[in-house]
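Quick bug: CCDB1 protein output formatted oddly.
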Amino acid sequence: CEVGAGAARGLGRARPPLRRLRSLSAVTEGEPGEGREPFELPRFWDALGQTVKVTSQEATKLSLAFSRPPVASAEDCQKLSEDVQNAVLAVAAVYYWLPKGQGTTLRKMVRDATTEVVEGMIQLTETILSAPLESLSPEQLISTGGVWEACEQVSSLPRDNQAAVASALAACLGVVKDALEEMEHAVVEGQDPYSDIMEDEELGFRGNRDTYWSEADRKLLSSCMGLMKASKAC
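Here's what came back:
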């Protein structure tokens, strides 16, 4: 009990610095500016890779510091909080290097990835603040892993706007392909077009008219399939 009480007091002292990390959610708000120095894309990616690596390491240090008693001292917690904050701010600062001229699709992907890192760190902080300091909880493990994963995903981002656009189109093409396959399967099988819809409690049974494709349904489906095929070809 005495150990538990000491841990609780220690965590109480540690809470104020950790709570300040919640304000990091605003660091990715706004638009990147045009720098005065010539922009170098390879240098940008090197810097972003280094900053997310440091952020991942800081997440590990923060999680380990609050994985078991005794809790970190107020001074150590202050240092941990500052290191985490500096790491996240560094990631955001590198994101703001990326000028508009590099392409909106690339910027959006980098922004989304940066936001995932920031939000992951905030989630880890919230988990630590809300969990009793007894052992490394599953929630804390998941939150820590979430930061690691968000940082690792940065390395798989497209390296220029052309690659970013191609990646976005590939994702859309996958959705179109799946939709087209489902439509073709439904037509060939002649299955109930509303089989995945539950019966309404008030309206009751749908009746036979809704368990097959009507002529109007087939004409509309044919037009939709043509549109899907045209989209796929593009």
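Actually, after a second look the formatting is fine. The mean pLDDT is 79. Closing.
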